[in-house]
Write a structure and sequence with these properties.
The complex is a heterodimer of chains A (108) and B (131). Chain A contains four helices and no strands. Chain A is mainly alpha-helical and 108 residues long. The mean pLDDT of chain A is 94. Chain B is mainly α. Classes of the chains: A mainly alpha (108), B mainly alpha (131). The interface between A and B is medium-sized, with 32 and 29 residues.
Chain lengths: 108, 131
């Protein structure tokens, strides 16, 4: 199903996202200026778009990952449950991403 | 006439299992991918909470946050689990889609090397911030 390949695609996206985490941590370790630069970039529209994509991909990969773990343990294969958990993954991704960004903007 | 398929292999399936298969690693790679994904469930949720608190933070904010014993340990755990999971996952994708032998081996080595360097950069940075 489409969700399975999306698990891989978001995984590749998240691998690119680790570059962002690395940049953020290294800049924080290097200097005030370098870190202020990252924080400024992340607050630009492009930065926010990247973070939005990253958080959505992370939640999606997180929830499809849980589904894969359940399959590995031998659960969730019968057709109605399989369909239901598929839709639950999509719903949970949307809800979690929205929630994170509502909290994020409230803190900001 | 249908005949029983016969393969001329001297080695029995049990022998293969004992030798842990052609890669000599058995199910280790598969298991590590699941193990790191399990570890990343709580670590990722913690990381997201921590990062929300770092919105608009200055470097001093990060330093005082990382000064606690919990953040420094959990950050290093997160970095190790993340990059291990990343290289193991990307290896599976590469093995499935890259047909050419040298290209496949080369890209797997590249991914592993880069993952290791990124993980080290993150760990050194966390230690510099928190120690």
């Amino acid at each position: 199903m489409a969700l399975s390949i999306s698990h891989r695609v978001t995984g590749i996206g998240l691998a690119i996202g680790t570059l962002l985490m690395t940049w953020w941590l290294v800049a924080a370790a290097v200097s005030d200026d370098a870190f202020a630069g990252v924080q400024r970039f992340l607050a630009t529209p492009i930065g926010i778009l990247l973070l939005l994509g990253w958080s959505a991909a992370l939640f999606f990969h997180f929830f499809t990952g849980l589904r894969h773990l359940a399959w590995d343990a031998g659960y969730g294969f019968d057709k109605p449950l399989y369909e239901r958990t598929g839709w639950a993954v999509i719903a949970a991704t949307i809800v979690a991403t929205l929630l994170l960004w509502i909290i994020g903007f409230a803190v900001w | 006439m249908a005949r029983t398929p016969h393969v001329d292999v001297m080695r029995s399936p049990l022998g293969r299992a004992r030798g842990l298969g052609s890669a000599r690693a058995g199910a280790h790679h598969w298991w590590m991918l699941r193990l790191t994904s399990l570890a990343l469930v709580p670590l990722t949720l913690w990381f997201l909470c921590a990062m929300v608190r770092m919105i608009g933070a200055t470097r001093d904010d990060v330093v005082s946050w990382m000064a606690g014993p919990l953040p420094i340990v959990l950050m290093i755990a997160l970095v190790i689990a993340t990059f291990h999971h990343m290289q193991a996952g990307l290896q599976v994708v590469i093995e499935d889609y890259v047909d050419h032998d040298w290209l496949r081996i080369g890209s797997i080595l590249l991914v592993r090397g880069l993952s290791l360097l990124l993980a080290l950069a993150c760990i050194v940075s966390v230690l510099r911030l928190g120690l």
